[in-house]
Amino acid sequence: MKKIDDYLHKEVLVLGLAKSGLAAAKLLHQLGAIVTVNDIKATDDDLVVQELRVLGIQVVCGDHPLSLIKDSQVDLVVKNPGIPYSNPLITLAVERNIPVITEVELAYKISEADIIAITGSNGKTTTTTLIYEMLKEDKKQPLIAGNIGKVACEVVQNATNENVIVMELSSFQLLGTIEFKPSIALILNIYDAHLDYHGTRDEYVRAKGKIYENQLKSDKAIINFDDKDVCERSEISQAEKIFFSTTTELEGGTYIKDGSVWYKNERIISIKEIVLPGAHNLENILAAITAVKLRGVSNESIVKVLTTFKGVKHRLQFVEIIDNRRFYNDSKATNIFATSKALQAFTVPTILLAGGLDRGNEFDELKPSLKYVKAMILFGESAPKLERIAIESGIEVIKCVDNVEQAVSTAFEVSEKDDVILLSPACASWDQFKTFEERGDMFVQAVHKLK
C-alpha cells in the first residue's frame, strides 16, 4: 500500500464498529491517526472492543455522545455506510465542516492497484463477480472488495500495482467519498431505491453518480445506453465514455446482434451458450465484458466464464429440485425492480415468496411481472401491502405466514409438479434479519429440510 501521511496526528472519529469500522480504525491507527471509535450497540466485553483498546484506540460504547465532537478537535469522521446522515453526530460534524467519509475513501488513498468500481440499483454483485472471474481466468491478478467480499481498505493494504481491484459499491458508500477516482467506473442502472436513506430520488442519483465525478481523461466510464439517468449522470465524467446496450447496436460499444454479444464489431459469444439464467442478466454480462475488454482480457477467457458461471449466492441462485419443483433463492432482490427482473426469468407457473421491511412504498409496479405467478406466500412488515397487490392481480392462492421457513413449507404444500418456487422478497430484510444473506440462508436450509 502507499505510505501516506494524510492522517498523521489527525484526530479521527470512526462511527460504527462493523467490519468496515474495525478495518478503518486499524488502518488509521497504522497511519498515525489519533483514533476514537463509537458504536451504540457495542459493549465493553466485546472482543473487537478489547482488541482495539489493546492497540491504544479509544472505544466509546452504548450511545452517541455529542461530546465526541463538541469537546474535541475532530479532523475527520469515518462512518459506517449504513448510518444515516440524520445521526446527531454526523449532523454536528457537517455543521462544523468536518469531512465525513466512508472507508472506501481510505482505500482509494492508499491503493497501489487500479480500481474497477461498479454500482447500480440492481445487478452489482453479479456484474462484479463476472468481472472478477473473467480477469482471474485471464490471469490478471484481480482482488475483489467493497460491498462484496472483504472490506475495501483491508484488501488494498495487500495490493500492489500488479493487481486490479474489482470493487462493488453502494450509494451509501459512494456518498462518503471525496477524492475517490476509479480508473474504470460503471453504473449499471438507476431505479428508485433507498429513498428512506437519501430522502429524494435526486439525492440517490447524485450519490450513485459520484463514481464518475473525479475521473480524468485517462480513465474510462462505462455507461448503460438504455438508462436515461445513467447517461445524464455520466456527463460529469471527463473520462473516455464506452456504452453498452441490450437494445441498440452501438459503434464502439458492447451490444446484442443476431443472437450474439458483440464488442466493437467483434463477436464474443452466442447468447445460447451463456448459462447464467434470466434475460436481465444480459445487461450485467454486457457491462462486465466492456470492463474486462478495457483491461485486455481475451475472448477465450470471457467465453470460458460465461459458459460455466451459473450465478452468485442469493441472486437467482438455483437451490434444489424436490418432487419436480425447482427452488430459487433471490434474497438479494431487496426492491421491486429486482423482483420484477427475477420473475421475468421464468415462463412457467411460479410461487413467489416475498415480503420484508416496510419502507413506506407501495408495490403496484410489481403487477406487470406477476403474469406467471399462481401463488404468493407473504411475510414480514410489508405482507399486507403485497397481499393487496396479489388480490388486485387475481392471484389464486395468497398466504400470509410468520417467516421464511414457514413460507417454504407453505409454498411446497400448494405447489404442483414443474412449478418454480422463488424467494424474491422485493424488500429489505431488516425487519426480521440482520442481512439478506441470513434470509437467503434460512430459505436454503428450509428447502433442504423438505427432503
TrEMBL record:
Enzyme class (EC, first level): ligase
Ranges where the Mur ligase central domain occurs: 118-291
Record-annotated Mur ligase C-terminal domain positions: 314-427
Residues that hold ATP according to the record: 120-126
Catalysed reactions, as listed in the record: UDP-N-acetyl-alpha-D-muramoyl-L-alanine + D-glutamate + ATP = UDP-N-acetyl-alpha-D-muramoyl-L-alanyl-D-glutamate + ADP + phosphate + H(+)
PANTHER family: UDP-N-ACETYLMURAMOYLALANINE--D-GLUTAMATE LIGASE
Role according to the record: Cell wall formation. Catalyzes the addition of glutamate to the nucleotide precursor UDP-N-acetylmuramoyl-L-alanine (UMA).
Similarity section: Belongs to the MurCDEF family.
Full protein name: UDP-N-acetylmuramoylalanine--D-glutamate ligase
Gene: murD
